[in-house]
Amino acid sequence: MNDDEQRRPATVVRATVRPWADRLAWTLTAVLAGSALVITEVVDGALAVVVRIGVVGAFLLMVAALAIVTVRLRTSLRSDGTAVVVRGPFGASVVPFHDSLAVGRWLDTETRRPVIWLTDHGAPIVRVPPRIDPVRIELFASRVGLEVAERDGAPPAPPEPPPVARDQPDEPEY
After folding, report:
1. Burial of 113 from C-beta contacts in 10 A (0-12 / 13-18 / 19+)
2. What does pTM read for this prediction?
3. What does the mean pLDDT of the chain come to?
4. What span, in angstroms and rounded, lies between the C-alpha atoms of 115 and 127?
5. What is the pLDDT, as a whole number, of residue 56?
6. N vs C: which end of the chain shows fewer Cβ within 10 Å?
């Protein structure tokens, strides 16, 4: 990017965590309250067994909610002014801004939800994670000056990974 080119705004859009954050808070409260009731021996007998089972169940749900919140917080679409960074829970793709960069939106006929990719000259290059709300993606695109283009047909499938070559000795030539 040249010094005389205008930088795009720096912004970020994350996947929503609201319902899972609420579950995390409620299960933490249930684990703490149930544990306190059992430890202080406020409940005893059969009721104590029921409370202990409830605490274990709430703890398992709390672990699941914490894992989902962590994955969702790692999923984002961001602009640093020079590039778009599509970040998933286990990796990221960096796409520099250029004139033919756009947001392509296909409608999946089975789920009736949009499938969104960053496109270059109309060809999909990076899929935007479906955990991010499509409305937020469109607001992000308008903020950083990317075109949102409706695409016809079926959404593109993720690319097939290259085949794994096993280490095999070459056959001897006779």
Report:
1. exposed
2. 0.71
3. 86
4. 8
5. 97
6. C
